[in-house]
Amino acid sequence: MSEEYPIDEDIYVLKNDKKLGPFDVDELLDKLESEEFSYDDVCLREGAIECERIRDLLDWEPLHKNLDSDPDDLEDQLDEDTFEDEPEEKPERKLAPSSILYRGHPSILNNPIAIIAIVGGVAGGSYLYSTDHRLTLVGFLIAIAGLVRLSFLRFTNDYLITPRRIELIKGLLARSSQEVRIADIRAINVSCSGLAGIIGVGSVEFFTSGDDPEIVFQKIWKARKVKRLVRKLQDESP
Hints:
The chain is of the alpha+beta class. The chain has two domains: 11-84, no CATH class; 102-236, PH-domain like (Roll).
């Protein structure tokens, strides 16, 4: 690391296998503010052989040495400064509106019949293999049908949460979507029942107005955690 603050130096940013730049400090700060770069991106000063994080580059301050001081006194002074200095606060990062904070699907525990069909079909087919191959084939077909059922339910329902919206996407090929702004949500109900509810599987209902929910996340894992996430986003929204 250089011993001078990079005011007049050219700085290159290494991002996505590309060398971007050169930039001066003011340009670099503008890029950070517009979220084109992040504080964790790697940069390289012109003429330097070692890379460093942008955070380290901008937060570093020059060390002013007192040439008249005794080396032992200088070492003690440095130790005191290190002990007394408070840790610097990391810059607050704002999430992009399109950032996906949660992506979920209906839990497979919501379909016990399909699970029983898969387990029973495989176990029964294997057990009957020595008796009748046709019964083995029937057992495996039942297991495949249960697997197809679970896959269809899981991959035709997507639940998304971003910093500003919640969205429900349905369908396999022709997909339709329904979304609600988080700021418009007035009530959130969580319902958990049965053995699946004991381990956190439940449905989350989002209400904007009226008695009917606008969007329902059906039988998802950690349903209460999803509710807390949405409430936190509401509290943080301006």
